[in-house]
Design brief:
Pathway: Carbohydrate acid metabolism; D-glucarate degradation; 2,5-dioxopentanoate from D-glucarate: step 2/2
Order of helices and strands: HEHEHEHEHEHEHEHEHHHH
Family: Belongs to the DapA family.
Shape: globular
InterPro entries: Aldolase_TIM (IPR013785), DapA-like (IPR002220), Dehydro-deoxyglucarate_dehyd (IPR017655)
Distance between the termini: 38 Å
Keywords: Lyase
Strand order of the largest sheet: 1-2-3-4-5-6-7-8
Largest sheet: 8 strands, parallel, barrel
Structural class: alpha/beta
Enzyme class: lyase
Number of helices: 12
Number of strands: 8
Helix content: 40-55%
Length: about 300
Amino acid sequence: MTTAPLAGRLDGLLFFPVTAFAPDGSVDLDAFRAHVRAGVAAGAAAVFACCGTGEFHALTPEEFRDCVAAAVEEAAGRVPVVAGTGYGTALAIRYARLAEEAGADGLLAMPPYLVVADQAGLLRHYTELAAATPLDVIVYQRDNAILTPATAVALARTDGVIGLKDGHGDLGLMQRIVSAVRAEGLDLLYFNGLPTAELTGAAYRGIGVTLYSSAVFCFAPDLALAFHRALTAGDDATVDLLVDGFYRPLVELRDQGRGYAVSLVKAAVRMAGTDVGEVRPPLSEPAPEHLRELALLVERGRALLKEAGA
């Protein structure tokens, strides 16, 4: 059930900051604050703290709470802050309450840990989470948490559930979900949550999914915002130029290593001038040759912006 205030505030490019770590492996809150502050100043429409790109899986509850609180302080009410939550139902509720204490505006509910549940189990998990917190919940569909249209309709009827973020990439299924929810006179916010969502942005817009998360915004907000403007305005020439010359090669580079959807982004943030440290195990740093390719790609993307006059 879509309700204010969060649902009405999520409009624009969504920023999923990386979590900064010091050389000794501890959370570096000063660097994290600088990263969030820069993203908000650059024009992020919302901050999704401690989610997938933010290595939610690698944070202790105490670190999670401190990072969410820091993001809330840096956003200072200018944009909403949504915090990740996950694992089993009991832990998801615990993280939800920590996020509430830290001042978050909502939650992104990531798939339950490890198990492959049936639809009844998934529905019970998300409804119990929503019932346990006053924060609005966005359900993240991917991996072991793929919803049927009927389950999506049930979630749309659930107080506190306001949205569905799709990281699965089955456009046929998403069209059926959108149609089923609409046919019942219900409403959900829908998000394209695929890694490097810009690559599929035009396809998702075709079924009415306009919101998306941008990993590129973490390290090249100028590129991400220019693409978002072009996509929103129907500037197909600029969209195609950036997809062909920057986003598609970036996805091909990302696919060269496991965990690159996080570690490559974090390396790019360091390249851009904010020392956010390395990823925590079990993730690994990108290979040196891939970092060199990444730097060249960012340069090429900016050259394409000049060519397009964007």
